[in-house]
Design a protein that fits this description.
about 160 residues, five-stranded mixed beta sheet, globular, Rossmann fold
Length: about 160
């Protein structure tokens, strides 16, 4: 049973939402190869209207996702999110350093547009920690990201 307010939608279905009525955050995961130009346009409109895309691209899709995300806003590319200076690490839960679920050089990438993160991309497979056995830091970081997206959406930033 899905959590209250959580449901699966396609990118095409995201098109039907109007500004102020869309989900504040959309979580995207998978292993697809690429998004069509029509899907890209829908996502760009969603982001322009205050939404946040939280991505957990897995395996072979990760590089496709990075390449695609880097085309959304000319001149803006995914960049590492500094875990010591960014609000997503000091939200509902405080992380004084890299979260325990990061291994090696895994970190979040993001695109910041007009002063807010519009895309947050996890390269460390954090969402795997949301399934049994649940990893507490993965849940806490997910809450921070979702809270950030909601705060930004409803503050009109």
């Amino acid at each position: 049973m899905p959590f209250a307010g959580v449901k699966d939608i396609t990118i095409e279905e995201l098109r039907r939402y109007v500004k102020g009525k869309a989900p504040p955050v959309v979580f995207i995961t998978g292993n697809a190869s690429a998004m069509s130009p029509a899907e890209t346009k829908v996502v760009r409109k969603y982001l322009d209207q205050g939404g946040t895309l939280f991505a957990d691209p897995q395996d072979s899709w990760q590089q496709h996702f990075v390449n695609w995300a880097n085309t959304l806003y000319p001149g803006e590319r995914l960049m590492p999110i500094d875990n010591k200076q960014d609000a997503i690490f000091d939200g509902r839960f405080y992380f004084p350093g890299p979260p325990a679920f990061w291994s090696g050089n895994k970190s979040f990438l993001g695109i910041k547009h007009n002063g807010r993160w519009i895309i947050i991309c996890d390269r460390g497979r954090m969402a795997d920690g949301w399934k049994p056995p649940v990893t507490e830091d993965c849940v806490k970081m997910g809450i921070n990201i979702i809270s950030y997206a909601f705060d930004q959406y409803y503050s009109g930033k």
